[in-house]
Amino acid sequence: MLTQRFYMIQFTKEEQSSEEKYLKTREREEDRKKELMHPQKVLNKKENKRKALLSKNQQNKKLIKYLNLNKRQEKLININQEEMSILPPLQYTYSNEESLELLIHSIKGNKDCNSERKAFNLCRSTVLGKHVEPEKCLDKALVFVNCFQKVRRDESAACQSAFNSTLECGKKYSESTISLGSSCQSQLDAYLNCK
Q1: Average pLDDT rounded to a whole number, residues 148-170
Q2: Are 100 and 164 contained in the same domain?
Q3: Among 59, 82, 105, which residue terminates a domain?
Q4: Nearest to residue 165, comparing CAs of 183, 178, 151?
Q5: 126: helix, coil or strand?
Q6: Which one of 48, 58, 62, 117 is at 20 to 30 Å from 179 when CA atoms are compared?
Q7: Which residue has the higher pLDDT, 77 or 129?
Q8: The pLDDT value given to residue 11
């Protein structure tokens, strides 16, 4: 009777161990299938296990190295920003007077060179409403630019005085909150209609 019990216990232990072995092999097979299906998740799990095994000192050392790298990168970025800001910020900007001159000339150029501008835009446009490269319309572009330059260069004395009065009016009202167009409309109309 005692020997029977001993054998039963032994058998159940062997049975349990074989079941455990079976379950472990089954888990391994499932893990392998997961590795094949989702290798990144498995790598992340392995990485997490590896991180858990690292001691706190090693993690702290890595963190310190990472922070030092970030500080170095910040210093490099700051140095690059300082090097890039060597040029004065206002070197390539227009003055207020130059901006007003260009604005007034562009208004007159838009009126006087309207047909040239339309020809250039039609040359560049496609059926879909997009624009092709301007070098394909070089002749029309040159005509358009020359027309605008002619407006700026070839002004009669009457047009020059009308331009100067418009410019002076623009300078007077450009710093204020009053609208430039409504305040200087009569001078601008005189400049646009002069020949």
Answers
A1: 87
A2: yes
A3: 82
A4: 183
A5: coil
A6: 117
A7: 129
A8: 53
Residue 163: left if φ>0, alpha if ψ -120 to 50, beta else—which one?
Answer: alpha
Q: Which residues have a Cβ under 8 Å from the Cβ of 195 and sit 6 or more positions away?
A: 156, 158, 159
pLDDT at 114: 92
Residue 194 in this model has a pLDDT that exceeds 60: yes
The angle subtended at Cα 72 by Cα 47 and Cα 54, nearest 5°, is 25
Cα–Cα distances (Å) from 103 to 19, 28, 92, 161, 188, in that order, read: 89, 77, 18, 17, 11
Q: What pLDDT shows up at residue 179?
A: 58
Task: Look at residue 57 and give its three-state secondary structure.
Answer: helix
Q: Is residue 115 located within the same domain as residue 155?
A: yes
| Structural domain count of the chain | 2
Tell me the two tokens of residue 58: 């090693």
